[in-house]
């Protein structure tokens, strides 16, 4: 039995990077004229853009070195330093190898070699640019997959630091760097989806082999494939024509004349009244979607307090899927633990579940999330000294920022992940984000909306906003002094390439607190975190 369980648990699937990439591509595929920050990051060329990874490596090294010589932490860093450095060096090597291949001149040279696989006859500049974009897509796709794996491996390896009683601050600082790196991997997915749209590659076909490229991409004579022009607003920021009549060359898109499908999921289980016209909502009206079990009372009656952050939009399809997944789940992570201890817990829980499929985690996970919500809000209320106005402060904080704070806590601490048992003896790890949103709405309904509060009072809101603002400026002043002292004591200004802003940014979560940052951004228009 142990061998069978080991085999099942040997390859626990995560949230599926390919699935995330595909969903992101669907979202961005609706209108490529919307040039997101992730897409614009590649304006100066793919080789320059992936240089961001070297900055993350530099920050990771600097933070880990800074903590050396601190007793208990020093032992941990010394023990795992080789593991950390190996991943960082792998990432730096990947950048070195792929930045050369992604250089514009190198891509153009490769395009000339590959030209005959796509077109017959003499070279034409626009067709050559098309082949160059295909080559950029292929190389960048490969690089992003490899570099993401290294960052994820590093992300898993730093978890041991959090097991030390004094390791949390260091873990948060390193985790902040890793979050930035993985976020850039996601932005690279956005750019790949953008290129895929331009090249008429369907999102579901992104994983094709290089040899299949001439049959996966489609060329249109009337569209300019010059790299720099792709980032201009207007016609160059749009995809080629949807119909296949204008496709030329000796190949066609594998999709024929079909257009790129748009995301099927529709947002709106809990919507802001009057979003499509004047509001006709009466005070205390309950919004409920027929596919969503959540009832949520929108207590405000003004345009400013009847939309996010005072509500959360639920994707009903994902919420239903989360519920079904939880009924098939046998375990969730309540507290951070070592990998070897987690394996044992998973085995025991899976055995119980296989003997009795009714022993799922749906109810216990709901209780866990509700408790996490209460803990997060209580921590925020205590930090901002808002105990006297707890319900009203929570109301104006809003469900959406609370959801973001709870999710941030789960991701930072490595908790909240669920494990479901599926077809083919496969175990998958996932985070039921839509279910967590629903639980936040339920918490507000039963812990805030039951009170008779001045929901529409601008004066009360302004009082809270000023209270948060005062705390913010006090904290920023204190942390700036701390930053200056640290830089001076470590003589960091003497380090070649030292960037004060990036050094500061890497410590924001550790010094200010992730939940507090969310609160600052909620109530203050301009913060250092935006």
In short:
With 530 residues, this protein is mainly alpha-helical. It is built from 20 helices and seven strands. Mean pLDDT is 80; it is low at 16-33 and 242-293.
Query: Approximately how much helix is present in the residues?
Result: 55-70%
Described by strand count, sense and barrel closure, the largest sheet is: 3 strands, antiparallel
Query: How does the helix and strand content classify structurally?
Result: mainly alpha
Q: Report the β-strand fraction as a percent range.
A: under 5%
Radius of gyration: 26 Å
Domain module tally: 3
Number of strands: 7
Characterize the overall form: globular
Order of helices and strands: HHHHHHHHHHEEEEHEHHHHEEHHHHH
Summed over residues and divided by their number, the pLDDT gives a mean of: 80
Total of DSSP H or I helical runs spanning 4+ residues: 20
> How is the largest sheet built, in terms of strand order?
5-6-7
Oligomer description: single chain
Residue stretches low in confidence (pLDDT < 50, at least 5 long) are 16-33, 242-293
Q: How far apart are the first and last residues' alpha carbons, in Å?
A: 52 Å
Question: How would you describe this structure to a colleague?
Answer:
With about 525 residues, the protein is mainly α. It folds into 3 domains: about 10-250, no CATH class; about 315-455, no CATH class; about 460-525. It is about 55% helix and about 5% strand. The protein has helices at about 1-10, 15-30, 35-40, 45-50, 50-65, 70-100, 105-120, 125-155, 170-200, 215, 315-325, 340-355, 360-385, 390-395, 400-415, 435-445, 460-490, 500-505, 510, 515-525; strands spanning about 220, 245-250, 285, 295, 330, 420, 425-430. The chain has a 3-stranded antiparallel sheet with strand order 5-6-7. Strands 1-2 form a two-stranded antiparallel ribbon. The N and C termini lie far apart (about 50 Å). Residues about 15-35 and about 240-295 have low confidence and may be disordered.
